[in-house]
Amino acid sequence: MDQTVMTDSVKVLRDGAVAEIVLNEPQSMNALSAGIKAGLETHLPAVLDDPTVRAVILTGTGRAFCAGGDIRAMDDRGAVSVRDRMERSYRWLAPLLNAGKPIVTAINGAAAGAGLSLALTGDVVIASRDARFKAGFPGLGAVADLGLGYTLTRAVGHVRASDILLTNREVAAEEAFAMGLASRLVDAADLMATARQVAAGLAAGPTVSLGMTKRLLRRAYDLPLEAYLEEEGLAQVLCFGSDDFAEGVAAFKGKRKPEFRGR
Known about the structure:
Elements: E1 3-6, E2 10-15, E3 18-23, H1 34-49, E4 55-60, E5 64-66, H2 79-97, E6 103-107, E7 110-112, H3 114-119, E8 124-128, E9 132-134, H4 137-140, H5 148-156, H6 158-167, E10 171-172, H7 173-179, E11 184-186, H8 191-203, H9 207-219, H10 225-240, H11 243-253
Parallel strand pairs: 3-4, 4-6, 5-7, 6-8, 7-9, 8-11
Antiparallel strand pairs: 1-2, 2-3, 9-10
Helix pairs in contact: 1-2, 5-6, 9-10
């Protein structure tokens, strides 16, 4: 790794154009403590705003990816306090979900509650065979949050999302892969090597077109066909005008591998 920034709760590792954000409280299965939330609030915007970062990996240490919300922080249940906590989380969640950069989530173990929400912020979700997924919220009498109803429905469809979110059943890695909750399934020993290989490939890709592709995929659920095609056309205009497209065409004509610069 080129560079490491570490707090007690979150690590940020840099390797070229790839940044890894690592939840680092394995003793509590990386539940979203005040420390982890503060680390995400600090590090995620900085990574997403850094033009030298072209792909991001999000993972956890120990035997869990993230066990969800920290029960210890839920004693203050007043409406104003809960709303304030949610608003604080949205300040880093919305940029993560709307990021133009590719996001890879590497699920090394349990992803429950808000941990499942975090897992589904990935454009590429790579699950270890040791991974398992659970909504968690019904067991507490809470509603799924951190955008889970939005992302899970788009990942697996309404019927499967309803099953997972209402019954609170655990989904093993193999079933998660089969239903589309995870996009890749690998042995535990290969998880981080695979995630880094995927992220490095994305970081070396045509950043403008990857960002536009992400935007179009998000808008595909919201726009009527005519509006979608209009946005698609504008996105293609932008991509055709990029240096990366010029390099891609030149490389194709020259029968060589393109060297994209992300602009």
